[in-house]
Amino acid sequence: MKSFTGKVAVVTGAGSGIGRALVLRLLAEGARVAASDIDDAALSETAAIASAGERLRAYRLDVADRDAIYSHADQVVADFGQVDLVVNNAGVALKGSVREMTDDELRWVMDIDFWGVVHGSRAFLPHLVASGDGHLVNVSSVFGLIAVPTQSAYNAAKFAVRGFTEALRQEMVLEGTNVGVSCVHPGGIKTNIARNGRTSNPADAAEFSKSIDQVAMTSPKAAARTILNGVKRNKARILVGPDAYAIDALPRVLGSLYQPLVIRAAKRQLGQ
């Protein structure tokens, strides 16, 4: 997919952050966009900023709801007639140790960050194949490359997205389709994911948001540009931000020995 002109793109989590930036850039590059989010107000704000007329349609969507995703795929095809690009971007964050977090908190993260990606991929895949020039983008994280304490649920979901997406890319090649598949690993991006996330210990909420803000090196606009350039190059793995490249190198160079470095950094943050 060398150009987005005339293409129909689907973007989840389009109410803010990377999702909103992707919508705006895709529209600027000539695409028609089906933008979805569970937050009606944020999605309406994206639509107002875009001011793209009939080239943009907004849909309320809970990606944790499998049936809703499949219905959404049918509706988008009915509204636009085709689907060429799907970006499964919607995600949530949780801070909590394995012993602290509840089953419901773990399930909340997995339902959105993993199963939302799986169902989004499977629901739209037949339409991407039919496109003849389709591309699927699943957003993982640098936490799909390394594990860190208090992020076990998020790590589990993002590592799973990585494995699922890389296997699917190989299947699309073996099946002789023209569907490209990319897994995105953003580093620190200036978004609301921490402020909209959850903590197993409510006392950690402010510190969690602050810690994410401190390491955010890349703007959503820059992230969107990197992702879409990666799509044009049919990259299997798209790293977003200089920190993503550094983190990607850690397990490659050190193997499991990266873990003591993470522990040391966590201790410094805790003042130990």
UniProtKB/TrEMBL annotation:
Residues 7-192 form the Ketoreductase domain. One of its GO terms (molecular function) is oxidoreductase activity. One of its GO terms (cellular component) is membrane. It comes from the Bacteria. Keywords: Oxidoreductase. InterPro entries: KR_dom, NAD(P)-bd_dom_sf, Sc_DH/Rdtase_CS, SDR_fam. SMART domains: PKS_KR. Belongs to the short-chain dehydrogenases/reductases (SDR) family. This is NADP-dependent 3-hydroxy acid dehydrogenase YdfG. It comes from Actinokineospora iranica. The lineage of its organism: Bacteria, Bacillati, Actinomycetota, Actinomycetes, Pseudonocardiales.
